Amino acid sequence: MHEPVDVVVSLPGSKSLANRALVLAAISDAPSVVRRALRSRDTLLMASGLTALGSSVDTSSDDWLVTPAPFAGDVDVDCGLAGTVMRFVPPVAGLSTGAVSFDGDPHMRQRPVGEVLTALLALGVDVDDGGRGALPFTIRGTGSVPGGTVVIDASASSQFVSALLLAGARFEHGVDVRHDGKPVPSLPHIDMTVAILREHGVEVDDSEANRWSVAPGPVKAVDHVIEPDLSNAAPFLALAALSGGRVTVRDWPESTTQPGDELRTILGLMGCDVARTADGLQVTGPDRLQGVDLDLHDVGELTPAVAALCALAEGPSHLRGIAHIRGHETDRITALANELTALGARVTEHADGLSITPGNLHGGVWHTYADHRMAHAGVIIGAAVEGVLVEDVATTSKTFPDFAAFWSTLV
User: Fold this and answer.
1) Can you tell me the distance from the alpha carbon of 83 to that of 74, in angstroms, rounded to the nearest whole number?
2) Of 301, 329, 386, 391, which one is the catalytic site residue?
3) Do the domain assignments include residue 332?
4) Is 386 known to be catalytic?
5) Do residues 57 and 152 both lie within one domain?
6) Contact status, residue 365 vs residue 405, Cβ threshold 8 Å
7) Do 172 and 207 have their domain in common?
8) Pair 205, 256 in one domain
9) Which residues contact 246 (CB under 8 A, 6 or more apart)?
10) Of 46, 58, 125, 193, which residue is least crowded by CB atoms under 10 Å?
11) pTM for the whole thing?
12) Mind listing the pLDDT tens digit of every residue in the chain (411 residues)?
């Protein structure tokens, strides 16, 4: 990219917020609406799974009406490649009176879910996973879950904690989740879960480190307006950073629990000017993009986009604290190291991160590994380096269905 950009973009809603809102709507005490819901494979899979259980999720308009109903009957839930479906729905399925079978795309059988299943067993749920701790598995509900205290190791994913908290108010004794292990990654996502639970009138005590307690009680119906997905802003803001131009993302929230909000700090450290305007968040790129030394433990999902920018910066960068992203849609650390190296960057792969020294990048194929964030990294590189072919940009539909067409109007 040689000419500075000057664009204003509007982003679709947050998948993370939408899927949490859908789960709580399905177990609440009255119908409610999830407004500006993201229409993507992950959210539609969540809607389908909750509808299969017994609730009705009407996705025919931009605002999705959710009507709770008793969960009953033997059903199948397709998780696709959605970690939120694979982890958030099983605790809810424990409230059913039928056998709920879970499976998904082949790669999902490699993603960790065993801690959630082991926790559900300890909380009184009948789980049949053949001892694999992975898909496929079956939850056999009895209509209620005793609940209580459970100790888990959530160092592989914060979703393990969120999954238990979201359903916890409907358990007879609530749920008291205690983490024992290495630091929990992506803590903002747990903060997001706690915040949305409180909006639904659920009592949550998170005053003690590594412990989250949800009191039993009703889940109040609440209409939600879903915020833009701030992590999806990364490739667009990267255009400003790379071109020395200006990009404004509309409707950037003043206060949010989304990890993507950390882009404001990261881009500032790389030399960008970051400011709030009446329209949203405005990023203006520098003359020269600077390398950074960052601990991305709490915002690991931003790593692919940040790594791509680091490969195009003026000096070396070090990204740390992200061992857990090896268990995301793909092993993102190894994937990034392989793809950046293939295009000319000098990359050292560490157990928990990457050291990146920019080189004379050249064209070639950027492989996406069926991972939307890897596709984001690829289009960022391709915006600055001629001849880069992103293998499967359509994988971005996971969280941004029209990404490819929208991106082509800008680059």
Assistant:
1) 22
2) 301
3) yes
4) no
5) yes
6) no
7) yes
8) no
9) 4, 5, 6, 7, 240, 282, 283, 284, 285
10) 58
11) 0.89
12) 568 999 999 999 999 999 999 999 999 999 999 999 999 999 999 999 999 999 999 999 999 999 999 999 999 999 999 999 999 999 999 999 999 999 999 989 999 999 999 999 999 999 999 999 999 999 999 999 999 999 999 999 999 999 999 999 999 999 999 999 999 999 999 999 999 999 999 999 999 999 999 999 999 999 999 999 999 999 999 999 999 999 999 999 999 999 999 999 999 999 999 999 999 999 999 999 999 999 999 999 999 999 999 999 999 999 999 999 999 999 999 999 999 999 999 999 999 999 999 999 999 999 999 999 999 999 999 999 999 999 999 999 888 988 999 999 888
Establish if 347 belongs to a structural domain: yes
Q: Are residues 171 and 310 in the same domain?
A: no
Residue type, 147: G
Do 162 and 272 reside in the same domain of the chain? Answer: no
**Any idea what the Cα angle at residue 375 is, between residues 2 and 4, rounded to 5°?**
15
CATH of the domain at 331: 3.65.10.10
> Does residue 2 lie in a domain region?
no
Whether residues 219 and 278 share a domain: the answer is no
- Residue 312 within any structural domain of the chain: yes
The domain tally of the chain equals: 2
Residue identified by tokens 């559900």 is 120
Do 163 and 102 form a contact (C-beta atoms < 8 A)?
no
194 and 307 within one domain: no
Domain boundary among 180, 204, 225: 225
Between CA 192 and CA 14 the distance in angstroms is 11
354 and 369 share a domain? Answer: yes
